[in-house]
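User: quick one, sequence for these tokens?
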């Protein structure tokens, strides 16, 4: 049945997990602070980006008015084939030690998954590595679940929490609070535990959403690249794809065999052309 009605949440198959390292990661940050003279008054406070005070001062915050830049302070991560969620924080390992842990995780990963990973987490972490003068980690492929949700669906909200609730998967815990983050950095044990739990909750939620979205991801890194199985499913690594042909796939000018993975439901087009009307027309 094409819908795979009643099928379990499509997991990456065991053989693929043995060959590819899939990392789910999420970072937490604190805002920076700036002091600006505006119309004879001193405006001082937190900010996330230099455009954040335009409604107050009518312009960007000058860079030389920044007294403390926003920064990443902790991260949680999980390997797809392991149950343990890893965690590193500035208050535990120092900022350099925390950033070094994230570098090591990326260096080992083949695929990194995150909600807004491409637009947020990766860029902030690369900036931190650059500030320490480190070379980039070994190259990886990125799967951004926020980008997938925006491209493939028309949900009214694509926040991680909203997607979890709509898809019926494990939801996040609590909400981010900058005051809690500052308290954690100040040594407040309760705040540290709260932020840690929040960060880890993001990881479990993101991996669950990733499993649900994966059959809809058009450009997911082909897991057959890592297993070297010629007829494997690109999304979950199932090996027996060739046994489940589902008619033909048609492009605007060509035709190919079409298959559907019986494990995760992903549709796959063969790479051998069955017909090329363009050549046929030109030969007439």
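Assistant:
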């Amino acid at each position: 049945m094409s819908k795979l009605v009643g099928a379990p949440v499509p997991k990456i198959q065991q053989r693929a997990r043995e060959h590819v390292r899939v990392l789910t990661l999420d970072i937490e940050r604190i805002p920076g602070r700036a002091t600006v003279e505006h119309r004879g008054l001193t405006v001082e406070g937190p900010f996330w980006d230099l455009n954040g005070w335009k409604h107050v001062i009518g312009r960007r915050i000058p860079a030389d008015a920044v007294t403390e830049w926003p920064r990443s302070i902790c991260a949680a991560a999980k390997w797809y084939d392991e149950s343990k969620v890893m965690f590193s924080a500035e208050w535990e390992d120092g900022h350099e030690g925390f950033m070094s842990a994230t570098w090591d995780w990326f260096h080992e990963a083949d695929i990194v998954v995150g909600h807004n990973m491409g637009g947020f987490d990766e860029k902030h972490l690369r900036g931190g590595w650059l500030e320490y003068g480190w070379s980039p980690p070994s190259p990886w492929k990125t799967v951004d679940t926020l980008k997938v949700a925006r491209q493939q669906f028309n949900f009214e909200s694509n926040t991680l929490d909203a997607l979890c609730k709509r898809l019926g998967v494990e939801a996040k815990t609590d909400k981010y609070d900058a005051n809690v983050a500052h308290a954690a950095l100040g040594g407040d044990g309760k705040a540290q535990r709260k932020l840690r739990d929040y960060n880890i909750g993001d990881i479990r939620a993101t991996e669950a959403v990733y499993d649900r979205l994966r059959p809809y991801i058009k450009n997911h890194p082909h897991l057959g690249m890592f297993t070297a199985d010629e007829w494997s499913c690109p999304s979950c690594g199932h090996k027996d794809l060739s046994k489940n042909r589902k008619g033909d796939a048609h492009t605007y000018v060509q035709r190919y065999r079409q298959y559907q993975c019986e494990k995760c439901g992903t549709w796959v087009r063969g790479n051998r052309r069955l017909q090329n009307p363009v050549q046929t027309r030109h030969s007439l």
